[in-house]
Write the structure tokens for this entry.
Amino acid sequence: MKNRLKVLRAERDWSQGDLAERLEVSRQSVNAIETGKYDPSLPLAFRIADLFGLPIEAIFLKD
Amino acid sequence: MPTDTAASAKRATSFWATAFILGMFGAGALLFTNLIQPPWGMAVMLVPMLLLIPMVRASERMQRAAGSASPAAARYNRRMLAASFAYVIGFLVAIALFVDREVSKPVAAMLSLLPTFGTFGMIWAMARYVIEESDEYLRVRTVNAALVATGLLLATGTFWGFLTTFGVAPHVPMWAVVPTWAVGLGIGQLVNKVRGA
């Protein structure tokens, strides 16, 4: 699954560590999600969507 | 620089891990060559065990630098360390009480429990980590590695069993399952790395 996490993060001038702290996950998790190595669970996807104030489908895209 | 910190923590972890392995081999060599005598001479094994403390601290620094540290992982490291010490101490006490003594079977069974308690501690620490880890990605990585370890243990155990049945390989005591599983866990973590998971 593709995602726009890196772009959204860059728009806010957040580092991976900043985003990880806001999501209460490890920096490695943010990196794995951003690079498409790991697809988050639905609860974590909702947390990400809430943080950016966007619907899930505006962040995560089908391949 | 974070990269320097990560590299230095990695070097420190490798250093202490190598020192621990060499220390254990050294203690084994002293016993094997009868330079020290069991059972109490075996207490020399406790010395390299102390090297696990700086090793765990260095690996925690490495986890922090790599962005994979978590409170659950820190608790796991401490529990595993305590369980490892409990295992070695239990093992030494059991051997010391068993060697050169005519012990009854019920007493021998009780002595067998002494090192086993440490092993139970390790299994409990692993189970608690999977339950307590709130970071789902780190949890998935651990569960993947544990599945690889379990698969390898079952496959190796079955193959070795038949090698024993057909007289090709010597009998291996059943307590070898935990160290074998731990090796499998390391391989599982390598598999995670190779798969980019």
Residues 2-32 of chain B form the longest helix (31 residues). The interface with chain A takes residues 66-70, 134-138, 140, 196-197 of chain B (CB under 8 Å). Chain B has a mean pLDDT of 88.
